[in-house]
Amino acid sequence: MSAQPTLLLVHGAWHGAWCWAPLKGILEARGWTVETVDLPTVHADDIVGLHLADDADAVAQAIAAIDGPVVVVAHSYGGVPTTQAARADNVQHIVYLAAFALDVGESLLGAVGGVAPSWWVVDGPLATAGTDAEPAASLFYGDLDAAAAAAAVAQLKPQSVLAFQEPLTEAAWHSKPTTFLVTGKDAIFPPEAQEGLAARAGSSVQHLATSHSPFLSQPEAVADIIEEAARA
């Protein structure tokens, strides 16, 4: 296998591979091979009825398609299917970016208290993010300028609510080394909760004073953290 791993980037809820563009460009300019995945509970032609297992299968397939070692980088909800799927032999490290490093039997909905947060808009089988009182721009992109935040919000898509309800049956962090980036100005995921998950997973912990989306607001700093983990 190649000495240098491929980096696989897994986006969070409502997002897509588009959100990695600044970070991906920086990493590729530094000599890394970078792959991304669009999770089917957001990006399939028909997302109704799709659930966590579909996303985990997509991550597993992306890992299997890479010839050589892999470092999986997951953001927010993306940590859930990554945790389910990343036990493959060629996975060298997992980097959780303000991500849910859950354990077997846990679901995202359970991790946030068992009730959908006030800023989730659930419409039957679908959920969107952000309300007039709690806009997505402030929740996800509080440290971006208004134009950049608006451009990102315009690309958010509905997601199947089943993705948030299904519990994990595997937890890769039990057998894989992990790094956890705690986002200190996060309006969605309290830093204290992030610290708790990182401690439970035995992660190496890094900190940035950013919103929930540091790959957009501080991509150079995030690239540094990923490189350090990938070279460990």
Architecture overview:
With 232 residues, the chain is an alpha/beta fold. It has a single domain, classed as Alpha/Beta hydrolase fold, catalytic domain (Rossmann fold, 3-Layer(aba) Sandwich). The protein contains eleven helices and nine strands. It has helices at residues 21-29, 40-43, 52-64, 79-85, 108-111, 136-141, 146-153, 162-165, 191-201, 214-217, 219-230; strands at residues 6-10, 34-37, 70-75, 91-97, 120-123, 126-129, 159-160, 178-183, 204-208. The strands form two sheets. Strands 2-1-3-4-8-9 form a six-stranded parallel beta sheet, sandwiched between helices. A hairpin with a 2-residue loop joins strand 5 (120-123) and strand 6.
Please tag this protein with its features:
single chain, 11 helices, alpha/beta, Rossmann fold, 232 residues, 3-stranded antiparallel sheet
Strand order in the sheet with the most strands: 2-1-3-4-8-9
The total strand number stands at 9
The portion of residues assigned to helices is: 25-40%
Q: The biggest beta sheet, please?
A: 6 strands, parallel
Summarize this entry quickly.
The protein is an alpha/beta fold and 232 residues long. It is 35% helix and 19% strand. It comes from Microbacterium kribbense.
Present the secondary structure layout.
Layout: E1 6-10, H1 21-29, E2 34-37, H2 40-43, H3 52-64, E3 70-75, H4 79-85, E4 91-97, H5 108-111, E5 120-123, E6 126-129, H6 136-141, H7 146-153, E7 159-160, H8 162-165, E8 178-183, H9 191-201, E9 204-208, H10 214-217, H11 219-230
Parallel strand pairs: 1-2, 1-3, 3-4, 4-8, 8-9
Antiparallel strand pairs: 5-6, 6-7
Helix pairs in contact: 1-11, 3-4
